[in-house]
Amino acid sequence: MSTETTALQTVRYEVDSDGFALITINRPDKHNALNHQVLTELDRCIRQARQDEAVKGVIITGAGEKSFCAGADIQQFRELDAYSGHRFALYGQAVFNRIEEMPKPVIAAVNGYALGGGCELAIACHLRVAADHAVFGQPEVSLGLIPGYGGTQRLPRLIGRGLAAELILTGERISARWAFEIGLVNRVVPIEHLLDTARELLQKITSKAPVAVALALEALRQSDLPLRQGLRLEAALFGQACGTEDFREGVDAFLNRRKPVFKGR
Ligand code: COA
């Protein structure tokens, strides 16, 4: 495994020989809570993974086995007022938007508590794999807050407004099993299989035509558009896929009963 050593202090960034970038939030003594430095370093890693042509997919996880991320750093909350709170939310949202907008697959490997901003981080990723002891929740109302890094918008889109309302209004935590039942996570596995399960999913996705995967991610990201608008977008992106070399290759390989060799063009 080759390691990027770009002076990161709160996040680790490693790229393996398959081209999978592993981003690990690294503040285990604070349950990997997100302070400004973590968000900034996470953002750097995401940009790096996007730019680096050798990177085909990304896994985001937390250090240790207790927490994926216990949300925004509550220490910082003492300084927030109406104005700075607004900016605080906008900054976190901008970082999480960049994760969602990645043209390469991003998988959250949820290794423990995913609370508040941690749950919001997981749902900004394209897919979620959880350890069987993971716990999800949006406890902000307990602090006199509401989710500010996308929870009120992404959670209802993912699990429906009724269940999202229950989680956000009660602040209650739910188990990984229940999260799986309601479609919040894609897989639940023992912690020792967590990263391998995430890698297997990435292997499956990255064995497909990369431009088609990027176009599908774009279409899925906009799947909350009004239906007719969404269908127009789908048709336009379908057209783009038809213009790629990989589309010719995929069809030719199928018709000639051979494995396709995709070039990402
Ligand atoms: N922000 C800042 N510090 C946090 C934190 C957060 N979101 N979550 C945990 N920590 C810190 C604790 O303050 C404590 O620091 P200390 O050792 O300096 O006292 C340390 O992490 C260990 O946390 P602790 O609460 O003792 O661990 P626990 O195992 O008993 O409980 C949690 C773990 C995650 C359930 C609990 O810490 C928690 O509920 N955290 C807050 C979650 C939250 O409300 N997030 C949403 C914020 S909007």
Automatic annotation (TrEMBL):
Read off the Pfam families from this record: ECH_1
From what superkingdom does this record's organism come? Bacteria
**GO MF term list:** hydro-lyase activity; isomerase activity
> Which family, according to UniProt?
Belongs to the enoyl-CoA hydratase/isomerase family.
Organism of origin is Rhodothermus marinus (strain ATCC 43812 / DSM 4252 / R-10) (Rhodothermus obamensis)
* InterPro entries, per the entry: ClpP/crotonase-like_dom_sf, Enoyl-CoA_hyd/isom_CS, Enoyl-CoA_hydra/iso, Enoyl-CoA_hydra_C
Q: Which UniProt keywords apply?
A: Isomerase, Lyase
- What name is this protein filed under? Enoyl-CoA hydratase/isomerase
Upper taxonomic lineage: Bacteria, Pseudomonadati, Rhodothermota, Rhodothermia, Rhodothermales
Q: Name one GO biological process term.
A: fatty acid beta-oxidation
